[in-house]
Amino acid sequence: MITFENVNKTYPNGTTAALDVSFTVPAGSTVALLGPSGAGKTTLLRMVNRLVDPDSGRITVGDRDISQINPVTLRRSIGYVLQEGGLLPHKRVLDNVALVARLNGASKADARERAQRMLTLVGLDAELGSRFPHQLSGGQQQRVGVARALVGEADVMLMDEPFGAVDPMIRRELQAQTRRLQSELGKTVLLVTHDVDEAFSLADQIVVLRTGGSVAQYATPEELLTNPADDFVADLLGLSDGARDLHVVDRGGRALVTDGSGRFIGRVRA
Ligand SMILES: Nc1ncnc2c1ncn2[C@@H]1O[C@H](COP(=O)(O)OP(=O)(O)O)[C@@H](O)[C@H]1O
Ligand SMILES: [Mg+2]
Known about the structure:
The structure is a single chain. By secondary structure, the chain is an alpha/beta fold. It has 2 domains: 2-232, Rossmann fold; 240-270, no CATH class. The longest helix is centred in the middle third of the chain and has 18 residues, at 168-185. Helix content is 34%, strand content 26%. The strands form 3 sheets. The chain has a 6-stranded mixed β-sheet, sandwiched between helices. A 4-stranded antiparallel β-sheet has the order 2-1-4-5, with helices on one face. The structure holds adenosine-5'-diphosphate (ADP) and magnesium ion. Residues 11, 13, 15, 17, 35, 37-43 line the site of adenosine-5'-diphosphate.
């Protein structure tokens, strides 16, 4: 479990990135931080592994106040997936993943064995392990990033726009795989995204953030759709301009679904 209690952060230049933020990520569930660029999503995420310290308030991970935990120890106990993969360019893919296991105290052989297992788990062929990161596609590099976050066997995972840099088809595939991993591994995940569909696809609950770092609403996707807190939330979700209004139309006895602009996007299963 991760909890934020009345967390505030203003950077030295006067920018407020977190304003009285409180929410909980229950153990084994996924929460998305959703909001416009600059709303403070990355700042909140980086607070969890103490890359940023709050000015006030409290953050706990698994019931421990993280201000009392050594940042290096804390970071080793948390998986972290970055937008661009964040791989070391001069190290082979397998070694990139094994390194995290080594830092957590695994022997060299054990670390490589675990790294290989994680690469397989995220759907990468064994032979890719001997390549360098630049010899992989963007989607493959993102998978390596996920494998590296998993290899430490941490209960808690942080993901910052993890699939932002890959094209839409690969993105959907990675999202589906992430859902599969979540249901198999039961990690506690805090995820940053500015993409409403990604938040809906991956998160059990969503923290909607406004510019200025305050929480506009913390709710399940279902609650957000049925009861958006205000116009800001409704606009962000696409509820105001009809972008998320779906219609059912009959085409020769088949019920098809269109979006707000009348484009066909699916069918109703009989
Ligand atoms: N190290 C920093 N120093 C000063 N301002 C920062 C720093 N990091 C982020 N900010 C500012 O804080 C606000 C929130 O940034 P960030 O947490 O990166 O938002 P998001 O991830 O939602 O785009 C932005 O206005 C950003 O410019
Ligand atoms: Mg960000």
